[in-house]
Amino acid sequence: MNSAKRKILVSGYVAVTLAAFGTAIAVLLTYTPTEDTMGPIQKIFYLHLPLAINTFVAALVTFVASVGYLWQRKGWWDDLASAAARVAVLYCTGVLLTGMIWGRSAWGQWWTWSPRLTFSLMLWLLYAVYLMVRTSVESPQRRATVCAVYAIIAFLDVPLVWLSARLMPDIHPSSIQLASSMKLTLALWFVPVTLASAGLIVGGFVLQKALREAGRRVPDTISHPPRLPARGGVA
């Protein structure tokens, strides 16, 4: 695909994603009823849950790509893992922030060390450390291997986040009952949040792959520099 077609495709994707966000916001403000107990602050849930689910998906992509790298030792698997991990950190940050805003209204406090909140914070820390590890190992092959092993282990926290409120006493409800109009709003919010997540992962992957391949080519251009003439004659 040439650069012109790629630019058109990216522009179209961004436009569709922004339109989906606009539609979801309009529906949230004009159609979705206000929950009786929590009031308007409850509407942050329609962003909170899609962010959480897409955090899990990004972590799953990182896990699969890490397994793929250890299996095939191909650099593009590592590129994909890196891109997905960045989205996992970004979206998990959104989950924690929206959860704190919701918790301040619902529970009267910004933070409580409930099992789900604790495991969610651990998830953010694990993938933030993953990104730090990527910057601390110089050898590309060693970095990819270390990060792949680390990401596989870090993924174990994902089911803990999901199951914590169901298997342990937690301030979070294990399930939430929604009216049909609220379910429609939630479904609509999944569309732009998922589109943005997929776009960020693919865009990050393409960038990482391009940087890696460019870095691989650079030594080839300087490995045989031109020989300078010897003093007093021609080399």
Protein described:
This protein is mainly α. It is built from seven helices and no strands.
In one word, what is the shape?
flat
Distance between the termini: 46 Å
Strand-residue proportion: under 5%
Number of helices: 7
Structural class: mainly alpha
Question: What is the residue-mean pLDDT, rounded to a whole number?
Answer: 86
Order of helices and strands: HHHHHHH
List how many beta strands DSSP finds. 0
Low-pLDDT windows of residues: 217-225
Rounded to the nearest angstrom, the radius of gyration is 23 Å
Topology record:
Elements: H1 3-30, H2 45-72, H3 75-106, H4 115-136, H5 140-154, H6 157-167, H7 180-222
Helix pairs in contact: 1-7, 2-3, 2-5, 2-7, 3-4, 3-7, 4-5, 4-6
Summarize the structure.
The chain has helices spanning 3-30, 45-72, 75-106, 115-136, 140-154, 157-167, 180-222.
Keywords for this structure?
single chain, 235 residues, flat
